[in-house]
Amino acid sequence: MGHGGDVIAELTTDHREVEELFGKIEALPSGDEQRKKYADQAVIELVRHSIAEEAYLYPAVREFLPNGDGIADKELEDHAEAERTMKDLEGVDAGDPEFDRLIGELMAEIRSHVRDEEDNLFAQLRSAASEDELMKLGDKVRQAKKTAPTRPHPSAPDTPPANKLLAPGAGMVDRIRDALTGRGKD
């Protein structure tokens, strides 16, 4: 959860970590309880990552890219779709056939979103923003992930300033719930 470097390096490392968790899920047979544990870990990382992008990356996209509003709006739509899928997945056990459908849907949504960010958005941002601006964004994203929620909250605001005000409180509640239930631990 905090790797260092500019915002693009930070977020790309997050993408690789989530993909590694997806690979672990796919390597296990349907119904294996370990799949739920890996799914919970993936959701925790995806929610933190999304909150940080919504608070800092997408406002920067709006600022630095000529078509930034349209790009940021599309990214927020992708996040909302994935967050609804994560919320549906939250209450489903690994042995339930619905788990396989939902985790497959989530993996497809995230993989498509990651491909789009890495193939298009990040290159555009790198050419439009200075290295200093990208480093500052990396620091802000790392800070945001430390206090971000760990559970999906589909009805929560996803744009500043409301998301920046509400996320730390929701994050604290989520981390307390996770500690009490053992969610996200091996």
UniProtKB/TrEMBL annotation:
Source organism superkingdom: Bacteria
Residue ranges with Pro residues bias: 151-160
Gene3D superfamilies reported in the protein's UniProt record: nmb1532 protein domain like
Record-annotated Hemerythrin-like domain positions: 7-125
Protein name (database record): Hemerythrin
Database matches in InterPro entries: Hemerythrin-like (IPR012312)
Residue span of region Disordered: 138-172
